[in-house]
Specification:
The complex is a heterodimer of chains A (215) and B (271). Chain A has 215 residues and is mainly α. Helix content of chain A is 43%, strand content 0%. Chain A folds into 2 domains: 2-80, no CATH class; 100-116 and 126-213, Cytochrome c-like domain (Cytochrome Bc1 Complex, Chain D, domain 2, Orthogonal Bundle). Chain A has 9 helices and no strands. The longest helix of chain A has 22 residues, at 2-23. Chain A is globular, with a radius of gyration of 22 Å. With 271 residues, chain B is mainly alpha-helical. Chain B has 2 domains: 1-40; 46-270, Cytochrome Bc1 Complex, Chain D, domain 2 (Orthogonal Bundle). Helices cover 47% and strands 7% of the residues of chain B. Chain B has helices at 2-22, 27-41, 46-58, 100-110, 116-120, 132-142, 156-169, 180-184, 202-209, 225-235, 246-259, and strands spanning 89-91, 96-98, 190-191, 194-195, 214-216, 221-223, 268-270. In chain B, the strands form 3 sheets. A 3-stranded mixed sheet of chain B has the order 6-5-7. A two-stranded antiparallel ribbon of chain B has the order 1-2. In chain B, a hairpin with a 4-residue loop joins strand 5 (214-216) and strand 6 (221-223). The chains are: A mainly alpha (215), B mainly alpha (271). At the A-B interface, helix 2 and helix 4 of A face helix 7, helix 8, strand 3, helix 10 and helix 11 of B.
Chain lengths: 215, 271
């Protein structure tokens, strides 16, 4: 009897465990999530231009990622990845490798897109990819961040096959096509970078002459 | 104050030594460190502001010609020791969860007779234009030195604010898909060379929150937590929130709750 009970206990525990693991992560804000959204939206200066305020909108990816604290169950992640892959657009001439020197500049620029009344970017400020904020790239730039993996020797290690070139382009255009809820922005989707600019950054990653692949 | 200053010096020296190993050849870093040393040669510049805050606290000012000495920051009128460390907190008289800045402004309005607009006009300093609020918050913050951050958020309204702060912390939006969490949700990450820390843990949140308000060398000014968080929203490429907005107070409640138990060391000194 005792043994049976113990067995039963162990079994139900084993069965419950995966369900628990899924349930363990509560939606941020818990039961106040809805109210929190309203409160958040009501927190902004009334004189913010309405086109600035559109930056508070969340698409399905953003909403879902928030809900799962950027760690969605695989099935939902796959759905988001498909959704994001479908957004990718290519340059009209179909060429995915541009000029690595242009790409090098874009990878370093961290300005652009700052709004507000205290310290906005001046009009016409160049908007860059800011890749160094999160990635190591050329060895000579030591002020790199670590939110993303090192991309030093990206081309040297991965080669320059069509597949790799397309992967690099797609990744920059819409990072979530490969890893839903990644911390990496979706540069093409948001028109933050143009398809042409993305080809320059691809060249910076892939071209054997690029400093990314030297040293 | 001297002991605290020593601690800051040691902390910065250590951070310098640590950073120096990986990036010895980087001149940007060397510049930053030089600026730190310069700033520290005469102590933390925030110490001057603390002194100014102390006199502003007891000076009779405003239409009612009153001081702030009867201001209740949550531990009773005039009780300053440990008050900063216990904020944000629910206040019965306003039926709101308030942080140190919103409560201070409340006192300037109710005790001294300033209008809210007058009280907040210069909520942060600009070159040549000092901010009374920065000075007062620096003074009030220092009165919690050596005490533990204590925001268990047990009152239902506080618990709710902490939860709403958590909601905002993970909320992604804007042209870079950012949330607070993408920059501050993991251990040991940095943006360029700036260490970020994991604000969702007691250790990470404690390491950050215990040092505020902080003197920012790159800005040449003391920043309050409101200023820090409003600027992080700017970095996230979001629109600008109102000063004292509930969502900032909610984030502060969430962060102070995470940091609870950490001993305060303020004013800090930062990049």
């Amino acid at each position: 009897m005792k043994l049976k009970l113990a067995l039963f206990g162990a079994l139900s525990l084993a069965l419950a465990a995966p369900a628990l693991a899924q349930k363990a992560v509560e939606v941020p804000g818990g039961k106040y999530a809805k109210e929190a959204e309203q409160m958040f939206r009501g927190s902004f200066r009334a004189d913010n231009p309405s086109y600035w305020m559109t930056r508070l909108e969340q698409d399905e990816t953003m909403k879902t990622c928030q809900q799962y604290r950027d760690n969605p169950p695989r099935k939902i992640g796959e759905k988001l990845e498909k959704l994001n892959a479908a957004t990718i657009r290519y340059p009209v001439d179909g060429k995915l490798i541009g000029d690595w020197k242009e790409g090098e500049k874009l990878a370093a620029v961290g300005t652009g897109g700052h709004i507000g009344f205290i310290q906005p970017d001046p009009p016409g400020r160049v908007r860059g990819g800011n890749c160094y904020a999160c990635h190591e790239l050329a060895k000579k730039e030591v002020a790199y961040g670590t939110i993303g993996p090192s991309l030093h020797h990206f081309g040297k290690l991965r080669g320059n096959s069509d597949d790799i070139v397309k992967y690099a382009y797609d990744k920059i255009y819409n990072s979530n096509a490969f890893s839903a809820c990644t911390n990496m922005p979706r540069f093409g989707l948001h028109n933050w970078l143009t398809p042409e600019q993305i080809t320059h950054i691809v060249a910076f990653l892939i071209d054997p002459e690029s400093p990314v692949n030297k040293d | 104050m001297v002991q605290r200053m020593l601690k800051t010096v040691v902390g910065v020296a250590l951070a310098g030594a640590f950073g120096g190993m990986a990036i010895a050849q980087d001149s940007k870093v060397a510049d930053e460190l030089a600026k730190y040393r310069e700033a520290l040669a005469d102590g933390n510049p925030a110490d001057l502001l603390e002194v100014k805050g102390e006199s502003l606290w007891s000076e009779k000012r405003g239409p009612k010609n009153a001081s702030l000495e009867q201001c209740d920051l949550g531990l009773g009128p005039g009780k300053l020791e440990g008050a900063y460390a216990s904020l944000p907190k629910y206040f019965k008289d306003t039926n709101k969860v308030m942080d140190v800045e919103s409560r201070l402004v409340h006192c300037m309005v109710t005790l001294q007779g300033f209008t809210p607009a007058e009280a907040t006009r210069q909520w942060y300093s600009k070159p040549g234009k000092e901010s009374d609020i920065e000075a007062l918050v620096t003074f009030i913050g220092a009165k919690s030195n050596g005490m533990k951050i204590n925001v268990p958020a047990t009152h239902p309204e506080e618990a709710k604010m902490a939860k709403m702060g958590e909601y905002i912390f993970y909320r992604r939006s804007g042209p870079q898909d950012f949330s607070c969490s993408i920059c501050h949700g993991q251990e040991g990450k940095r943006i360029r060379l700036q260490e970020l820390g994991n604000l969702t843990t007691q250790q990470g949140a404690g390491f950050a929150m215990k040092t505020w308000p902080s003197y920012r060398v790159s800005q040449g000014a003391v920043w309050t937590m409101q200023r820090r968080l409003i600027d992080c929203m700017r970095q996230a490429r979001w629109p600008e929130p109102n000063y004292l907005a509930d969502s900032i107070i909610a984030l502060e409640t969430y962060l102070q709750k995470n940091a609870t138990g950490t001993v305060m060391e303020t004013p800090g000194i930062k990049r």
